[in-house]
Amino acid sequence: MKRALLGAAVAGAVLLPFLPLALWAFSQRWFYPQLLPEQWGLRAWRYVLGTAGPQMTEALVQSVLVAAAVAVLSVAGGIPAGRLLGLYHFRGKDLLSIVLMLPIIVPPLCVAMGLHLWLLRLEMTATFAGVVLVHLSACLPYAVFVMWGVFSNYNLDFEDQARSLGASALDVVGRVMLPLIFPGIVVAALFAFLLSWSQYLSTLIIGGGKIITLPILLFALMGSGDRPVAAAVSIVFVIPALAALAVSARYLGSRRVLGVW
Amino acid sequence: MGILQLDDLTIAYGAETVIRGLHLEVAEGELVSLLGPSGAGKTSVLKAVAGLLAPAGGDIRIDGRSVRGLPPEKRSAVMVFQKPLLFPFMNVAQNIGFGLRMLAVAPAEARERIRDIIALTRLTGLAGRRPHEISGGQQQRVALARALVLKPSILLLDEPLSSLDANLRQQMRELIQDIQAETRVSTLLVTHDQSEALMLSHRIGLLLDGRLRQVGTPHDLFHRPADRAVAEFFGGCNFLTGRLRGGLFDCELGSFPAPGVMANGHRLTATIRPEDILVGGDSGHPIPGRVRKTSFEGATTRLWVDCGAVQLVVLTPRSDLTPGQPIHLRLPAEKIRVFPPE
Fold this sequence. Notes:
Chain A is mainly alpha-helical. Chain A has helices spanning 2-15, 18-25, 43-51, 53-87, 93-105, 108-121, 128-152, 157-164, 169-197, 201-207, 214-223, 227-248; strands spanning 27-29, 39-40.
C-alpha cells in the first residue's frame, strides 16, 4: 500500500509536467482563461508527422546517430580513465580530475565558442565529426565520473583469480572486467546519450545549421510561435530519451555492480 | 605429476622484504601448510607461485621446470583466494567451467568434468544457481571446485576457511581433507590458524618474520619445536633455563636427562607443554608450588603456579584447585624438550 502510494507519487512527479504538453499537442483552439482546450484536434500531429515528416525523421536520425556515437566514445574513453582514477594512486591525480571537470564547470557557450575556432582551422565545422567532438567535451567527463565510481568499488582480485584459472590478459578484459562493470557501462552510456540528446547551443555553433538535430528543429518550430506544433515536437523529442531511460533503468543504482566477495 | 620447489624465494614490496630466502618443497600428493601470523607475507608466496607477483629473487619450479617469467595462465598452479570471488554474472556450473573454457576444452568433456567435480564437492543440485543465491560455505566450495576441475599440478589455497563461521569451518576442513586424499592433488595451503594447519597438513612450514623457522610434520612442530619462537607460536609458555652437565639438564626445578644434546656447560633453554605437567600428591610429584591464578577452560583448567623463582603454566583436567592452594607437580623427563644451542 505504502509502496503503491510512493510509486504513484513518483510517477506523478515525472509525468505531470508532460500534461500541458499533451494538452497543447492535441488542441485546435485554446485561449486564456480556459482550463482545457475549446477544440481538440490533430492539426499539430498532421503537421509534425505529415508536412514536416521528412524533416522530422531526418533530424531524429541525426540526433540518434550523434548521441549514439557520443555514448560509445564516452564509454570507450570513460573505462580506461575511470580504471586509472578508481584503482591507482599516482602523482597529479588531483590535477587530472580538475582538468576532467573543467568542461562541466566552464559555461558551455565558452567551450563551444573556443572549440569553434579550433574546428574552423581543422575544417571540421558543420560536420558530423565536429558536432560529436563538441558534444564529447560535455559528455565524456560524466562518463569518466561514472566509471571512476564503478572502479572505486572494483575488486582486482577477480582479475587475478581469472588469470590463475587460465585466462589471458585479453580474456580478463572481455570475459571478466567488461561483464563485471556492465551495469556501470550502461549508466555511463545513458548519461552520455541523454546529455548529447539535449545539446542545443554547441550543435548550433559547431553544426552551423548543416547538422540538424532534433533540438535545432525544435527551437526553430517553437520560434514560429505555433504552440501545438512545438508541443508535438517536444513529445517526439522526449520519447526516445524516456525509452533509453526505461531500457537502462534496471541498472541504475544496481547492486549487481558489486558481485560476490 | 605435482611437485613444487621454492628455492631461495625472496619477495619484496619496494624496499621492504617480506619473505627472505624461502626453501620449501611440496612433494607429489602432499598437503603442505605455510603457517604464520597475519601479515607475514604468506599470501605473497602463493601469488608468486601462481604468477601474480614477481619475486625479487630465487626460483620456483613446478614439476622440475622453472616457471620464472611464465604468465599465470601458463602455469599449472591454480590459486583459490581467501574470498570465493565467484563471477556474479555466471551461475555455479559456468563459474566452475570458466577455466575449462579458457583452455578450450571440448564442451562434452567439460560438462562431464564439471558434473564430476560438482559431485565431489557436494554441490549437486546447485549447478544452475547464481552465486548470490547460495550460502557462504557453498560459495567457498564452488571456488574450490573451479580450481580442482582444472586438475592442476599444484593447488594453492589461501586461508580457505577464514571467511566461514565455526560450524562451516569444520565441515570445510573435512571436505578439503577428503578431496585432497581422493584426488591426491599436491597442495600448498596458507593459514594463520595453527589448529587448521595441524589437522590438515602432511607437513607444516612455520613462517615467522619472513623466515621459515621450522619445517616438519605437525607432530614434529608441536612436540619438538626447533626453538623458543616456534614453541611460543604453538602455545608453549613454560621456559626453563639451565646448564647441561653430563647429559643432564640442570635447572632450578631439578635435573632431567637430555639425550641427544651435546653442549656440556652451555646455558640452554628447555620447554615443556602446559598439558604435560602432572598435578598430584607428594609421592612422585617432587616439585612443590602454590597456585597463583586459575582459569576454567571447560575440559581443562589453566593454572599459574609459583614454584620458587620459576612460574609454570599447567593445564589440568582437575577443576577443584583454587588460588593460594599448595600443590605438587611432576615434569615427566620425556616431555621436556631442550633446545640445542643457537
